Amino acid sequence: MAGEPVNVNEFQELARQALPKMYYDYYNGGAEDQHTLKENIEAFRRITIRPRILVDVSRIDMSTAILGYKTSAPIMIAPTAMHKLAHPEGEVATARAASASDVIMGLSYMSTCTLEEVASSCDAVRFFQIYVYKRRDITALMVQRAERNGFKAVILTADTPRLGRREADIKNKMVAPQLKNFEGLISTEYVNDNGSNIEAFAAGTFDASLCWMDIAWLKSITKLPILIKGVLTSEDAIKAVEVGVAGIIVSNHGARQLDYAPATISVLEEIGRAVVYGLAAKGEHGVKQVIEMLKNELELTMTLSGCCTINDITRSHVKTDKEIYCRM
Ligand SMILES: Cc1cc2nc3c(=O)[nH]c(=O)nc-3n(C[C@H](O)[C@H](O)[C@H](O)COP(=O)(O)O)c2cc1C
Ligand SMILES: CCCCCCC(=O)C(=O)O
């Protein structure tokens, strides 16, 4: 490649050249046939831009708020595991980038830097993503550490009762290092000779019995607002409204979990509508919530990545879909 990289595809190629194959494949791959991975890209390609002209764009402000925290654009850094496999500074460097760009960072439960290191590295607004372990005491401890260290929300990733079947990881016998957050609590260096070690680790450690009832448990161990990540259907979006979480993240986990799940962007509208109806169905209070949003916030805040709070989703649909508003 001649000169500096100018787009993400070129950065990806540099990463492919620089990283050990096992790690590149881990970052790059989707589950099974990687059908959803291709669809994630194709579905975005199918969305075209409808340009309007002769509009004053000399000063552009894309800032909005997620859970009340200001962000320079409706973009959040998604929680992704083990940044030190790619760079020695790991998640601390990512947090500094979030701070410099004035966007919110989601820190993965499976980070290679500790949450304390990330918290003390800069002033980025941070949300803490969790997996629920069979050892709930460990998960509770992690959530409490996050709360003590100034994280502003908990993101419960709900699409991973087991890790997706990632064929490259199976072939490479992908192994994780010992993650410092869990030192003295649990070993993450799971090694056997039979396929993906991280898949085996997740199967042994993640609580596959987790269900909607457990949101009450999560609420009981933290005062932080809770976001549920991995919603792909309107039914689940409505359940999320019913259990009273602060937001949902519409996501197929970068196509790394269930192959042949829909592309995230293709279900965002259906889910937005469901949330509006779900809130309305909560009765007068829900309807009032939607109307307040309409009065106060007329800007479109739905994020393109599919990451929205319930407020954001509702606002964007109230603004763009008059029919929904009238029917309420
Ligand atoms: C290398 C890699 C690691 C990831 N690790 C996590 C993780 O630890 N926790 C999590 O909730 N999601 C994880 N994800 C998923 C991302 O948070 C995010 O959902 C995905 O990259 C973007 O797809 P989406 O728009 O469908 O959400 C990971 C994704 C990648 C590519
Ligand atoms: C170290 C064990 C598993 C990490 C899983 C992280 C993740 O969510 C991913 O998509 O990969």
How is this structure best summarized?
By secondary structure, the chain is α/β, with parallel strands linked by helices.
Describe this structure in words.
The protein has one domain: Aldolase class I (TIM Barrel), CATH 3.20.20. It is built from 14 helices and nine strands. With 328 residues, it is α/β, with parallel strands linked by helices. The longest helix has 18 residues, at 264-281. The protein binds flavin mononucleotide (FMN) and ligand LXCWX6NK.
Summarize the helices and strands and which ones pair or pack.
Layout: H1 8-18, H2 21-28, H3 35-46, E1 64-66, E2 69-71, E3 76-77, H4 90-101, E4 104-107, H5 115-121, E5 126-130, H6 136-148, E6 154-157, H7 167-172, H8 197-205, H9 214-221, E7 226-231, H10 234-243, E8 247-250, H11 264-281, H12 284-296, E9 307-309, H13 310-320, H14 322-327
Parallel strand pairs: 3-4, 4-5, 5-6, 6-7, 7-8
Antiparallel strand pairs: 1-2, 8-9
The structure holds flavin mononucleotide (FMN) and ligand LXCWX6NK.
Residues 27, 78-81, 108, 110, 129, 157, 229, 251-254, 256, 264, 305-306 line the site of flavin mononucleotide.
CATH topology: TIM Barrel
Helix proportion of residues, in percent? 40-55%
SSE ordering: HHHEEEHEHEHEHHHEHEHHEHH
Distance between the termini: 55 Å
CATH domain class name: Alpha Beta
Question: How large is the count of helical segments?
Answer: 14
What's the alpha carbon Rg, rounded to whole Å? 20 Å
Q: Biggest sheet: strands side by side, in what order?
A: 3-4-5-6-7-8-9
The poorly predicted ranges are 296-308, 312-328
The secondary structure category is alpha/beta
CATH superfamily: Aldolase class I
| Known CATH architecture | Alpha-Beta Barrel
Q: How many strand segments?
A: 9
Overall number of domains: 1
Bound molecule kinds, no repeats: flavin mononucleotide, the ligand CCCCCCC(=O)C(=O)O
What shape does the CA trace take?
Answer: globular
Q: Which range does the strand content fall in?
A: 5-15%
